[in-house]
Write a structure and sequence with these properties.
Layout: H1 2-17, E1 27-28, E2 38-40, H2 42-50, H3 54-64, E3 72-78, E4 82-87, H4 89-102, E5 116-120, H5 132-150, E6 154-161, H6 166-182, H7 197-205, H8 214-235, E7 242-245, H9 246-251, H10 254-264, E8 268-271, E9 274-277, E10 288-291, H11 299-312, E11 317-322, H12 329-339, E12 347-351, E13 355-359, E14 362-363, H13 376-383, H14 385-393, E15 401-404, H15 405-409, H16 416-436, H17 454-464, H18 466-476, H19 480-498, H20 514-538, H21 549-552
Parallel strand pairs: 5-6, 5-11, 6-7, 11-12, 13-15
Antiparallel strand pairs: 1-2, 2-4, 3-4, 8-9, 9-10, 13-14
Helix pairs in contact: 2-3, 4-17, 4-20, 5-14, 6-7, 6-8, 10-11, 11-12, 13-14, 16-19, 16-20, 17-19, 17-20, 18-19, 19-20
The structure holds one RNA strand of 77 nucleotides.
RNA sequence: GCGCCCGUAGCUCAGUGGAUUAGAGCUCCUGACUACGGAUCAGGAGGUCGGAGGUUCGAAUCCUUCCGGGCGCGCCA
């Protein structure tokens, strides 16, 4: 925030005046009100250098802060050495104009400086519908992409389609078996094949008489699965820039090219009829096969080629979001990149952890083999896009997630999505009310001094934190910070608003007092802007009114 | 056995660039509101931050080790 920046300058100047070695102060938002609005631990950092206890350092520093910036109400030094700054609420209210003026753009930053990022996520096999783990990865990946774009990166969203290999062969054979069965012929799904109902459904749609080869029918199947995954993701608000086919790498001989580069630099060797990549050179547990005994390339070989391709496309930063079962690939992929001469630090791998669906506090068991699995489409039908996305985003990505289906369906404040959306709808409702009462808000001139309730200052302060939250979320690649932030904002508003019931000063629309009404509406407008921006990034809608069954009939 | 994730209130989880009295929601208890600007708000109870060592003036946060839970360890993808 801008106030932090100014405080930092003031402090650095004070440090300089005292002849101390420069250190950059950082600020925290104190939990306790008595500790002011911003606090710094700079005195602790300087203590060693100066050779005095932190409390003394703090006192000396504070004495040198002059002239004290006008937005400061008070500076305290607290044991054992904190400097607590109390900021004049009016400073916050004045800064609201940045939110109002920037509108949808509020929160945008240039941290990324236009760096090209490729974000690969979901990348599930095209052998069936997407499950809830993919859904989580989709929510996380898409939101991270939104955030990175917001803070100044140029983001490319990509889905890698494993459309060749063993699994695809099994898939093809399974589909062919279903096709034959439908025509009353003897056919069995292979041992490790795909048993799911969806293959039956798809097989029914195929021309009956036709005699397909496994390869032909497999291609049709893959095409259909990709199309259906694309559709599911679109309904979830996720659209990719590119669906990258593994088969393309084969066609273009990309695997051969990558491997021959590794060959030339001596990173490959042959053993027992297979070709290995010596990944242990770069810290992997064991060397990995790139060409199998049967002469086929391993999955890993194409993954090397794929990552090589990403770097060749001049992305400065490559982010992969993998499922929990793929974490073993991190070290070998990084090893391969190093062997190819790239900086493996330009690859960031995030693991999107598993999802436990809970129904009545009982884990919903899923078994792929028995064909009993809950798909992403099922989940969306059950709880809706908004709730699903938010629930996936409210936990840190690396943590296992308990998804409470009961809670997800509730339309009560216990459900955070409902609560947040209701805050937004409530503000919209207040504006409708204001219009009805013929109050015409004028935000060109707002009497900020009429915003004088403590909660109003707190809200303004929190609104102005939004860019910081985005920056933190982008830096840590952890969307849950944003999910928590927006929930907190909704809480603040709901609490503030409710006080009107027993305290008339909290009433927003007051016919007898246009100036106050106008100022409060202005604050509300800014809350609404931030709610919309935050929800937009999360991929959750910000409704103008909450729909309820009995209200629907009036339309 | 090795690797990754996790262990914070009864439950689900924030907080882990060390720092002022460890936070929130749910549950439980108490109290306000009788409202279409609706489908709430306020307060209270509740924690040896898995255990033990260590670094530090100061550790939920960093290091070591142990315990517990989940997942993964194919020439499948």
């Amino acid at each position: 925030m801008i106030l932090e920046k100014k405080l930092k300058e003031v402090l650095m100047k004070a440090i300089e005046t005292l002849g101390w070695r420069l250190a950059e102060p950082t600020f925290t938002l104190p939990k306790q009100k008595e500790h002011g609005d911003l606090a710094t631990n700079i005195a602790f950092i300087l203590a060693k250098q100066v050779g005095k206890p932190p409390i003394a350092v703090a006192q000396e520093l504070v004495a040198r802060i002059q002239p004290s910036p006008s937005f400061l109400k008070k500076i305290d030094v607290a044991n054992p050495g904190f400097i607590n700054f109390h900021i004049h609420p009016n400073a916050y209210f004045q800064l609201l104009s940045t939110i109002f003026k920037q509108g949808k753009k509020f929160g945008s930053q240039q941290l990324g400086k236009g760096t090209k990022v490729i974000l690969e996520f979901v990348s599930a096999n095209p052998t069936g519908p997407l499950n809830v783990v993919s859904a989580r990865a989709a929510a996380v990946g898409d939101t991270l992409a939104n955030i990175l774009e917001k803070v100044g990166y140029k983001v490319h969203r990509e889905y890698y389609v494993n459309d060749v290999g063993n699994q695809i062969d099994l898939f093809a054979q399974s589909l062919l078996a279903r096709h034959l069965q439908i025509q009353g012929k003897e056919a069995e799904i292979p041992q490790e094949g795909y048993q799911g109902e969806y293959l039956k459904e798809f097989a029914k749609k195929l021309p009956k008489k036709k005699a397909f080869s496994a390869q032909q029918i497999g291609q049709l199947g893959v095409k259909a699965m990709v199309a259906s995954q694309k559709e599911s993701l679109k309904n979830f608000g996720v659209v990719f820039n590119k669906w990258f086919l593994q088969s393309e790498l084969l066609k273009k001989k990309e695997i051969e090219k990558s491997l021959s580069r590794l060959q030339k630099t001596g990173h490959l060797y042959e053993s027992e009829g297979a070709i290995f990549f010596r990944s242990t050179t770069f810290g992997d547990d064991k060397d990995r096969v790139v060409r199998k005994q049967d002469g086929e390339y391993s999955y890993f070989a194409s993954d090397i080629a794929y990552h090589n391709d990403k770097f060749a496309r001049k992305f400065n930063w490559v982010i992969d979001i993998l499922g929990p079962d793929h974490h073993g690939y991190v070290s070998r992929t990084k090893a391969a990149l190093q062997a190819l001469g790239y900086d493996s630090n330009q690859l960031t791998v995030l693991i999107s952890q598993q999802v436990n669906l809970l129904q009545n506090e009982v884990l919903v068991k899923m078994s792929k083999r028995a064909g009993k699995l809950i798909t992403m489409d099922d989940l969306m039908k059950e709880v809706g896009k908004d709730v699903a996305r938010y629930f996936f985003l409210m936990r840190s990505t690396s943590s296992h997630l308990d998804f409470d289906l009961e809670l997800a369906k509730k339309e009560t404040p216990e459900n955070p999505v409902f609560y947040i959306q209701y805050a937004h709808a409530r503000i919209a409702s207040i504006f409708r009310k204001a219009l009805q009462t013929k109050i015409k808000a004028d935000f060109k001139k707002v009497a900020l001094e009429l915003l004088n309730l403590p909660e109003e200052g707190e809200i303004a302060k929190h609104l102005l934190e939004f860019p910081n939250v985005l920056a933190k979320t982008a830096k840590e690649l952890e969307p849950h910070h944003l999910a928590f932030y927006v929930l907190e904002l909704a809480k603040q508003f709901q609490s503030y608003y409710s006080q009107a019931k027993h305290d008339p000063r909290y009433k927003v629309v007051d016919l007898g007092n246009f100036e106050t009404t106008n100022a409060k509406l202005y604050l509300l407008k800014n809350i609404q802007i931030v709610l919309q921006n935050a929800l937009g990034i999360l991929g959750v809608s910000a409704p103008q009114r909450m729909k309820k069954e009995d209200a629907a009939s009036t339309l």
